[in-house]
Design goal:
- The complex is a heterodimer of chains A (55) and B (566).
- The longest helix of chain A is centred in the middle third of the chain and has 46 residues.
- Chain A has a domain of 25 residues.
- The radius of gyration of chain A is 22 Å and the shape is rod-shaped.
- With 55 residues, chain A is mainly α.
- Chain A is 84% helix and 0% strand.
- Chain B has a domain of 374 residues: Sodium/glucose cotransporter, CATH 1.20.1730.
- Chain B has 23 helices and no strands.
- In chain B, helix 7 packs antiparallel against helix 8 and helix 22 packs antiparallel against helix 23.
- The longest helix of chain B is centred in the first third of the chain and has 49 residues.
- The chains are: A mainly alpha (55), B mainly alpha (566).
- The interface between A and B is large, with 39 and 54 residues.
Amino acid sequence: MEKWEKIAEGFWAVMVFASIAWYFFLLFYVGIRGGREILRMGHRQGEKPDAPATH
Amino acid sequence: MTLTPLDWTIIGVYLIGCVAAGVWMKRYVRGVEDFAIAGREMDVYLGVASLAATEVGVVTIMYTAEMGFTNGPAGATYGVLSALAMFVVGLTGFVIVPMRNAGVMTIPELLEKRFGLGVRWLAGLVIILGGVLNMGIFLRLGGEFLVHLVGLPQAYLEWTMTALLALVLIYTVLGGMLSVLVTDYLQFLVMGLGIVITSVLVLWNTPWPVLTQQLTLAHQATLAAQEKEKGPPGTDSSSKPPSASRPTDPREQPQAASLGSSEVADSHRGKALRPAGADSVPPLPKGMKMGNPLNPLGRGGLGWMWVLWQAMTALAVVTTWQTTIARVLAARDSRTAKRVYRRTAFYFVGRFALPGLWGAAAFLYFWNQGGLPEGIDSLRAMPRFLGTLLPVGFLGLMVAAMLAAEMSTDSGYLLTWATVIYNDLLMPVLRRKPSEKVRLLIIRSLVVLIGLFLVFYGLWYQLPGKAWDYLAVTGNIYLASLFTLLVGALYWPSANRIGAIAAIILGAVGPISFLIINAMTPEDSPWRIQPEMAGLAAFGCSFAGMIFGSLIGRAFLPHPTAPTRP
């Protein structure tokens, strides 16, 4: 029983610390890549003809 | 605690920047498609930021922290299930690829292609009923967080949240999904920074090994109290937990014994720990109890039924929750949608694990303080705890982060529900299609109307039971039905209109029964329905409705509708 509790404790420790690391990494990675995509999206939207879109 | 000029500056810069960026995007809105799905121009990383920001609101942080307060790290089980579901769907393209390829704006629009206009309308109604009820508690919970974190007078809650919603409405009404994507991106960054810094501070205050050991002690004390409530000591000595009142033999409690007095004193950096002297399991204050903090399936844990229900819910959410699917439909193509899912998946572990960590640390803090103060319960304990923990300067960042979380969720949800009402409830019943200008005016007006509804319904609504259970059950009103409909429409050639209608009606019966019966019966009544029972029953009934309804329908429908192939 104690063995399973140790495994569970290790699992949750990995989840918590990996989440902090992942959030920190995404701040920069998505920050840079997402910023570029916003500029590209604005550019593409600006190039579209003025005719109203339909669906 | 009061905010310093530095805190106010951080908050002010964030709010002005966010609204300005949102309003700027108005120039690119030419029609309903630009407004509702950003002209399908969303790329991978903007999708990751938008999906993460929309699905992490203050309400999410409140209820996930509540799960940590009542179940420790194991309260994040749904986060793990959710990440797994999202990764598998992102890998296989299950549901999301055929949906994106269908070129529709909402889920009910896809259902019309297979089951007809009636099912589209009914599905739209169910989505609005479940979705708006679900969103009804967002504003109040978000306001409560800010009140307890900053120490604002309770009387300011309504005004603060009304002002915040007004800011959200300004950019959402003007720029639609284009504004939502850009502001979500900014909110993702501010929110992420706040979550990371707060989590590091909480772990500095309450080191991980101490946290888990103390929570285990709290769990043992809870079991002991439950045994005591049941009556005199039972005959089954093997299952008897350590007594809460007697000194504990270290051989019986290896975890308690391993945490010696000096270790506790050394690691006691902050206020969130029990005092030294872990040679007995101290009783918990009234109103506080801890489930199994490490194993959701172990004794006193969340249980198999709950885990199974949450696994089903997780799969249904990532394939049918309209605010999540809105990002799939706004993606440039199905490949982009799959990549967004795969890369966002692990974010959903932190969505539960990190606020859960704050909630667990809050539990230990209030245990150490002798119990929860008056007016504070398991839902409000975490913001009160953070208010005592965060130093000046960080508080402003944390408030900005939580405003970001609230605003991104509100804008995404307002736009999504307005789009469903416009696209699936209003447009199908109009005899003549209005001009593009009028259609834009209609959808913008709907965003404002839903905002007004939220102010009056949301700020006055009293939350029954645990927040997460309420959200999950009201969400299940449509999750079970829509998940069944989509799977049937896309992957079962024999599914038909009768089966679809039966699935919608039966899928709503379980959650609605839960809300009505539990509102009418006292807390200790044996007739009360457990949330997991109501949730699982909803999925079971909905699938049964689809199968049996379709089989019956085959005998009565003159011309079976052609299936939409994935």
